[in-house]
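Hi V.,

You were right to ask for the full record rather than a summary. Here it is.
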Amino acid sequence: MRQIYLDNNATTRVAPEVLDAMLPCYQGAYGNASSVHALGQEAKGLLDNARQQLAHLLNAEPNEIVFTSGGTESDNLAIRGIAEASPRPAKHIITTRVEHHAVLHTCQVLQKSGIDVTYLPVNSEGMVDPQDVRKAITPDTILISVMYSNNEIGTTQAVKEIGQIALEHDVYFHTDAVQAAGKLLLDVDDLNADLLSLAGHKFHAPKGVGALYVRKGTRLRPLFFGGAHERNRRAGTENVPQIVGLGAAAELAGDGLEERARPIGELRDYFENEVCRRIPEVALNGSRTLRISNTSNLRFERADSESLVINLDLAGVACSTGSACASGSIEPSHVLLALGLPVDQAFSSVRFSLSRYTTREEIEAVLDILPGVVSRCREASPVNTRLHAKV
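Predicted structure:
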């Protein structure tokens, strides 16, 4: 059976150019980057090159890049690192209700240690009002953490304005840019970001590698101890092959970004328009305009999202109900609930996410499959069964 992959916000395929860059690190250049011999220094050179590639993508300095195991670690290091390094006796963090669980759960843990956290609401399109951020700042505020683009609905936040507000109040600003990499311009100076999180597998690098940008002068307590790696900010032998892959992916992500994003957005828009034309009672979750180009979160009224995803998978189409990190949860999406959707509508929503490798032919095939799947799922829905029973 032909497989069509429309779950690129969960993870992406490794780009051929990335794999080509990584392979020598497993065969010839396999030294430890901390070793002084020739093989070690060769590995260190590859590490330094990858650091420069990431820095170039972010308009940062190479020594401001900390390599991590991925987005979750980067978010944890940013938030806990700032909180634990702050000398203030009372500490306050501002974030939003639609953040990734890597941010929300970290904040919840910090609350148990006595740190105050404000979770700002969003509007029906998933956007936080920057003025709500400003109003939430107190003399004890040490950090504002607002994601750049939402992983479930794709909505982009006014991070540049929020970063400026943080700067005006001398508060550190962190943005989770995991879903923005390769889709939006990431200039840390333009965004006024002090910390910025990335995960390689979201933009065609391998899983298990990521980065945290840390602006020079930012006080950050490390999560791990045991070595002076990453300028004493992340102990542990660097994973050179994966970091090299991350660097190669960063170079690809910055190459012709706008030209590449435009056709993906056009294909996404065509898909949405055709779905709404061919299937009744379909609505878009989130913003139609202020979102990343590859993401479509659609609500199919009176259909169960889990059933839709399973039946589409059986037909060869991979998509999801939302965040891959919440897969298996019986709870509705916290993001969709924050938009004000009732539980039944949250449970009828499916996320389709495209990539540079998604073709028009694949989209046409999904459009042929989807109406029948939705119809069958609606007929089997417990809601419809109860309605028929009353007639």
